[in-house]
Amino acid sequence: MNGGRTFNLLQQWRIPPGQSLSGRRERLGYQILKGHFFPVKVWNCCSFRCCQELQSNVGDVVENSSAFGSDIALKIGTPGKPAQNHKSLGAFQMLPIVMPSIDILASAKRKARNVPPTRGIANLAKRERNKGAKQLDALMKELAVPLRQYTENFPNKQYLHPYERSLIELTLGDGNYEEVLRRVDSLRKKIVSIGKQQASLCAQSMSKREAEERLNEGLKKIEEVFHIGSNAVEDLLHVAKTLRAMPVVDLEKPTLCLVGAPNVGKSSLVRILSTGKPEVCNYPFTTRGILMGHIVLNYERFQVTDTPGLLMRHDEDRNNLERLTLAVLSHLPTAVLYVHDLSGECGTSPDDQFTTYKEMKERFSNHLWLDVVSKCDLLQVSPASNLQDDMEKYKSFGPEGAIRVSVKSEFGLPELKERVHGMLISQMAKIRNETNSKES
Length: 440
Ligand SMILES: Nc1nc2c(ncn2[C@@H]2O[C@H](COP(=O)(O)OP(=O)(O)OP(=O)(O)O)[C@@H](O)[C@H]2O)c(=O)[nH]1
Ligand SMILES: [Mg+2]
Hints:
Elements: H1 3-13, H2 23-34, H3 101-113, H4 124-153, H5 162-172, H6 176-203, H7 208-229, H8 231-244, E1 255-260, H9 266-273, E2 291-297, E3 300-306, H10 320-331, E4 334-340, H11 350-363, E5 369-373, H12 390-397, E6 403-404, H13 413-439
């Protein structure tokens, strides 16, 4: 093991709060996304392009609505269409498919070009200006309607389950979800405004030629406005992709959550215990998102989540990775498998691990809980147990009742699996009891 390197990396992570995560994340982002992790990034408010590393449903034109009619109401932040209630998960899987702006534009232009003049107009100038106004109106609607559908059908954050709300804030950055939707809506308003203006101008043309010129000019102007604001659509597309890629959690199914300091061997245990195959590396914060694996036991399917490591620090100093872990513990009914590394290899001292452990145990005392001391192949044979001090006991044995295991030598793994299965069965009974008492 490379203890020195681990220590240096850990020191890098003891950076002041709020500072952006290091370049390693940039390097890891793609792999993590492929491995079903969702990467975490505090987005720069004005540029969502940088979020590409993170991990069509264009509606029909409203036939009867006139381009000169009333504006389309903004539904963001209004209780117009709650995606679901606070108690269920799954909103990210129901997000509308966002079309790339280039496709929206191409489709709108094609449809607008095919709009004919109203039948029976004999006068050439009248017919041309009627056609021009109708085509400009059509282009405006074809662009505005999908944008309106996006702003209406992306759920209002306040209606989401608190876990999903936390995911939005921690992965996209606080306020950025709403900001992108606001920009999309602002683009829609600009399109409606320029569309009305150009169609009205065309409708006032005095000659066939003038109507043709105004039509071409109007189409160009609408396209220009759309083009200038189109990055809002691209950003919304990335928001949708990022949120849709997040692991799906079933609240009715028992879930085991692995928690502990960075680099203590959580992901190695997830690989042993479940179908999850998170990345394992000898540096802290290898795991940069929530990964779901499964355990099938007696035909029952259980969920396992790997989480980013927790350092000993105050909540306000925690990075977004640590906050994700806390969001899982706070909002999902999980059983905890807390991993302790007393080998001195992980980069967090046993003293610091003990402090964080005590805090978490107290804070999440309502969770079923199992302690495991990892990497026991690296531990000395236990000294005599006449130790009085809690900390000294912890350094030698871990918390009371902890199981000693080693992924390398496979020591303790059968016992761990048995205890984990037992805990998940208890978790299932707990969930059923809670559901029954809510129903009665
Ligand atoms: N000797 C030994 N090394 C282990 C054992 N379990 C894990 N390791 C090593 O410890 C290092 C960290 O393991 P991970 O499973 O990535 O640890 P983690 O807690 O998920 O780390 P983060 O995701 O960074 O928080 C890797 O180099 C593993 O090979 C073990 O039982 N014995
Ligand atoms: Mg990990």
